[in-house]
Design goal:
The protein contains no helices and 7 strands. The model has no long low-confidence stretch (mean pLDDT 83).
């Protein structure tokens, strides 16, 4: 007789600490960066303009011309003892999610190469 053991483990939780960059735009290969000590840190949820936000981030210097891109980074460890993983993200406007520098998922972002003209 065999038994199947199904379990769930939440890897990233509300209230976790994230690193974030909210001061302008980064080069298009920012997700390959390994040193984030110059980034700010905050408790999730992060954002602005919503009562449920625990860490308010900057939208830039001009409320009529907000910087549309913000960068978030969280180091996690995934052990390969599960058969599948489910990704749930709380996204307001749009997002592109990378794991180990490779795009995994996008929401409300066109299916084109992401390149910010303000990046050097």
């Amino acid at each position: 007789m065999s038994y199947n053991n199904f379990s769930q483990e939440i890897i990233i939780k509300t209230g976790d600490t994230w690193s974030y960059f909210d001061n302008g735009y980064l080069n298009s290969n920012w997700m390959h960066k390994s040193d984030f000590k110059d980034w700010k840190t905050g408790i999730s949820p992060l954002g602005y303009g919503d009562k449920k936000v625990l860490t308010n981030i900057s939208f830039g210097n001009n409320s009529n011309n907000k910087e549309i891109t913000k960068y978030f980074k969280k180091n996690i460890t995934i052990n390969n003892h599960y058969l599948a993983y489910e990704l749930r993200a709380q996204i307001d406007d749009g997002a592109v999610i990378y794991i180990n520098g490779k795009e995994l998922f996008r929401s409300n972002i066109s299916n084109s190469i992401i390149n910010n003209p303000l990046c050097i």
